[in-house]
Amino acid sequence: MTAAVAEAGAAPAVLKYRRRITPGKAIRETLFYIAVVIVVLIALFPFYWILRTALESNSQVAAGVGGKNGIIPGHLSGQAFVNVFTQQHFLTPLLNSIIVALATTVVTIIVASSAGYALARLNIRGAGAVLSFILLAGFFPVLAMIGPIFLILKSIGALDSIYPLIVVYLVYTLPISTWLLKNFFEQIPKDLEDAALTDGATRLQTLRKVVIPVAVPGVFTAAILAFILAWNDFAFAVSFLSTQSHFTAPLAITTFGQSGYQTFYNLIDSAVVIVSIPIALLVLFAQRRIVSGLTAGSFR
Amino acid sequence: MAAEVEKVTKGRPARAGRPAPHSSAREQADRRLGYSLVTPVIVLLLAITAFPLLYNLWNAFHFDNLSYGGLPHKWVGFSNFSTLFHASSGWVAALERTLVFTVVTIVFDIVVALAMALMMNRTFRGRGFLRAAILVPWAVPTVVSATLWKTMFDPRAGFVDYFLGAFHPAWASLSWLGASTSRSWVAIFVADSWKNIPFVAIILLAGLQVIPNEVYEAAKMDGATWWQSFRRITLPMLKPVISVALIFRTLQALLVFDVIYIMTGGGPGNSTETLSFLNYQTFIVNTDFGVGGAMSILLVIIALIVSAIYVRAFRPEATT
Question: Does the reported pTM lie above 0.90?
Answer without folding.
Answer: no
